[in-house]
Amino acid sequence: MVRNPERRAGLVDAGVEVLAREGARGLTFRAVDAEAGVPVGTASNYFTGRDDLLRQIDARLHERLAPDPEVLAGLLELPRDRSLVGAFMHDLMGRATRDRTGYLALLEMRLEATRRPELRASYTRSVRGDLEEGMEFHRAAGLPGGDETVTVLYLAMLGLLLEHLTLPGVLDGVLPGVAVPEGMVERIVATVVPEAAGGDQA
Q1: Residue of 19, 11, 15, 18 lying closest to 111 (CA atoms)
Q2: What is the sign of the dihedral through the CA atoms of 138, 140, 146 and 151?
Q3: Which helix (H) or strand (E) holds 129?
Q4: Residues 54/119, Cβ–Cβ less than 8 Å
Q5: Distance separating alpha carbons of residues 54 and 49, to the nearest angstrom
Q6: How far apart are CA 5 and CA 27, in angstroms?
Q7: What contacts 169, CB < 8 A, 6 or more positions away?
Q8: Whole-prediction pTM value?
Q9: Over the stretch 21-76, which tens digit does the pLDDT of each residue have?
Q10: Residue 102: exposed, middle, or buried by beta-carbon count in 10 A (0-12, 13-18, 19+)?
Q11: Which residues, at least 6 apart from 100, have a Cβ–Cβ distance to it below 8 Å?
Q12: Do 102 and 20 touch, CB atoms closer than 8 A?
């Protein structure tokens, strides 16, 4: 059967919407068809099952939440110091905030991975690959700190993103005078990233 790539992409994006709104248990082919506005049974012609759909949602979210190459190139024209790391973290926060649905879908993928060993294995590889890619980028760009810096930044930003996109009131006023999320990003970077390049190269 010949399948339409644009329709497949539309179905995957509809799956992102359903996943973010209803959670993994609500991610049915019927729900995806309804969200995409296509006849019942369409999604079942494009995906072999829910695991196939979840894997394709994972791949699509990597595209949706990826840095803009032009923004990345512009940032890399700046001095390779702590403030540049801060600019990258602000860009990350901005992308997640603009595509809140996509980021919430990523969080739902994490929860579903705790229940499904086969998804856990593939999603662990995916997320670990992102972390290792971040480490390699940090090293290649000559940014201050090493793999330990990137790992702690990853953990801190993950926590900030989780709170800001799900329970933003948790952080409101917790540090007087520090805006959420912008000021929190600055505090994270100032705390984690060394001032001078090469502070903890791994």
Answers
A1: 19
A2: positive
A3: helix 117-141
A4: yes
A5: 9
A6: 21
A7: none
A8: 0.91
A9: 999 999 999 999 999 999 999 999 999 999 999 999 999 999 999 999 999 999 99
A10: buried
A11: 165
A12: yes
